[in-house]
Amino acid sequence: MAEDTAKETIGFQAEVKQLLQLMIHSLYSNKEIFLRELISNASDALDKLRFEAIASPDLAADDPDLGVTLALDEAANTLTITDNGIGMSRDEVISNLGTIARSGTAEFLGKLSGDARKDAQLIGQFGVGFYASFIVADRVTVDTRRAGLDADAAVRWESTGEGDYTLEPIERDARGTTITLHLKPDESEFAQGYRITSLVKRYSDHIAFPVRLAGEESTETINSATALWTRSRAEVEDDEYKEFYQHLTHDFEPPLAWSHNRVEGKREYTSLVYIPGRAPFDLWNREAPRGLKLYVQRVFIMDDAEQFLPLYLRFVRGVIDCADLPLNVSRELLQSSPAIDAMRSALTKRVLSTLDKMANNEPEDYARFWSEFGEVLKEGLAEDTTNRDALNKLLRFTTTDSEGDSQSETLAGYVERMVEGQDTIYYLTAESLAAAKASPHLEVFKKRGIEVLLLTDRLDEWMIGYLTEFDGKALQDVRRDGLELPEGESADDAEDRADDGVLERLGQCLEDAVSGVRASDRLVESPACLVVGADDMGAQMRRMLEAAGQDVPESKPALEVNLGHPLVRRLETAADDARFEDLARVLLGQAEIAEGDLPADPADYVGRLNRLLVELSS
After folding, report:
1. In this structure, how many other beta carbons lie within 10 angstroms of the beta carbon of residue 487?
2. Mean pLDDT score of the chain
3. Which of 69, 208, 339, 599 has the lowest tally of Cβ within 10 angstroms?
4. Cα separation, 530 vs 528, whole angstroms
């Protein structure tokens, strides 16, 4: 018998109240999407029943004909969606319909902008599409009974989409769920057969279960009821692929690209993978659920089978249907199977090939992909040595020759534009593009017309440790010691130069802050710059580790000075030790600021600078 016999009223979780207010005020730019969301949820419930029935056949034995039934009542102005899937228990109803039971709740609410179209896309992204019912309905009733429970364990959930909902036990002979939408007076179109039929054919034709429309005399199946991935590519229209993607992901934007492939032979499987058009909210949570939806012989097995793609491709969505895996396959078996390893390798290559085709044939789409997922793709250089060459071709950069801030340059394009005698790919890391473009380290490259990659993403310095060469050309950090330039004129060609003796004096004065002082052949206009040792940690990596609270090894940069610069020549004439130190410390502070850092002692720097300014003005 049911434990609870009385009807009770329960308040919604606070976040749901906010969400419902957005829904009720027509958050969705296309309100008819509600039907796709509800049919997709019903399809998921049918999939889950079929999976649980593998181990417990009795769950589906009394009604093996799985499907979704739509019933319309124009007089009562209602639309009813019924499935004979897994159903819900009382606790599951409270969890699924009274709360947003996902870790992204706070992120979701934080991202809401007030722009209806953008916020609608977020709702799909966060998987809360059930609440779209309240766009067209002023009251929603859900009757449900979980498979395996008694008839008197069924539950009725009802709400007007305001502050609370009611919950009461009912008798229900059949397992599954019935959702009744009591439509708003101005939404009566959704109680008409022709309208519902057209929406099902448009949005849910690919559902692998029959969607039936109940009539007065007969019930008609109104979708093709064939899993889209089982059909030949030649039979599937682009719009069908896009609609299936939206069913699969609840994403309101179409995918950028997809790849549909059937493999036969030693291993038989069909894959359909998609490249989304935008990043999910939890892209940077490496522990978040990810992976493909796994089927075995068209039987749903699990939602997030992460074993089929590497972590750096965690944004890829899709399905894989294997013919030769057991129906009771577990995550543990997937992790230790040579067959899975082979499929993972093949799928990874297929995704990278799809991206390569997009890059070559649809550069605007690829630019959008790169802006959303480029940083994640860079992780592959460390994680996937097998496909490193393919990944290298997919990388995009801003360079000193780029227009604006677009990341559109390839390594291959850079190599083609190398100047005569150049056999090295030069790069510079910085906190921002503005800081990179203003770096004094670029002065000699600008003077000689040599292009430099500008790396400003937080992962770039880490990534570059795995990108040591391309097309036989080594990569070199222009900020590091040992910089080698193509043969040509020196940067410092000024006739009026300070004597080399100033270097020794600077070294003695600044020995606490720098590893040494030397003349520079990379500076043209700036008086000085800091140079990182060849084996020392770069500034970008240092900042990232410090922000993460990790210990950073101590090291001192070298100071390179432009002996032809007036400030350096003035150092040579400073006989007074105190004045020389003021000039030296200001020179060092300027070099630190040019690197994007503050001087080690900002107050000391300001004091010395003020003394020099007063001296000049007196």
Report:
1. 8
2. 86
3. 339
4. 7
Pairing assessment for the beta strands 257-263 and 269-275 based on DSSP bridges: antiparallel
Q: Which two tokens stand for residue 427?
A: 């790069």
Sequence-separated (6 or more) residues with CB below 8 Å from residue 535: none
456, 432 contact by CB (below 8 A): yes
For the chain, domains (ranges, CATH) are 8-225 (3.30.565.10), 229-366 (3.30.230.80), 368-477 (3.40.50.11260), 501-530+553-617 (1.20.120.790)
Q: Identity (one letter) of the amino acid at 441?
A: H
Any residues with CB less than 8 A from the CB of 262 and at least 6 apart, and which?
269, 270
Tokens (6 digits) for 141: 């009733």
Predicted pLDDT at 299: 75
The whole-number pLDDT of residue 288 equals 80
Q: In what order do the strands lie in the sheet with 517-519?
A: 517-519, 558-561, 528-531
Q: In whole angstroms, what is the distance from residue 583 CA to residue 612 CA?
A: 8
Please name the residue that has the structure tokens 């593009």. 433
Annotate 285-354 with three-state secondary structure.
CCCCCCCEEEEECCEEEEEEEHHHCCHHHCCCEEEEEECCCCCCCCHHHHHCCHHHHHHHHHHHHHHHHH
pLDDT digits (tens, 9 = 90+) for 433-479: 988 999 999 999 999 999 999 999 888 888 988 998 999 999 999 99
Query: What are the E-state strand segments in 368-409?
Result: 398-399
Contacts of 297 by beta carbon, 8 Å cutoff, 6+ apart: 321, 322, 323, 327
Name the more confident of 242 and 2.
Answer: 242
Per-residue pLDDT tens over the stretch 41-65: 899 899 999 989 988 999 999 999 9
Other Cβ atoms less than 10 A from the Cβ of 134: the count is 25
What does the angle CA 57 – CA 62 – CA 67 come to, to the nearest 5 degrees?
Answer: 90
Report whether 274 contacts 316 (CB < 8 A): yes
Handedness of CA 447, 452, 458, 463 (dihedral sign): negative
Span 353-412, pLDDT tens digits: 999 999 999 999 999 999 999 999 999 999 999 999 999 999 999 999 988 778 889 999
**Percent helix, strand and coil across the chain, each to the nearest 5:** 40, 20, 40
CA distance 243 to 251: 10
Residue from 102, 142, 130 nearest 40 by CA: 130
- Dist CA 138 CA 181 (whole Å): 8
SS (H, E, C) 192-250: CHHHHHHHHHHHCCCCCCCEEEECCCCEEECCCCCCHHHCCHHHCCHHHHHHHHHHHHC
Alpha-carbon torsion, ordered 589, 592, 596, 600, to 10 deg: -70
- Cα–Cα distance, 498 to 519 (Å, whole number): 10
Percent of the chain at pLDDT exceeding 90: 54
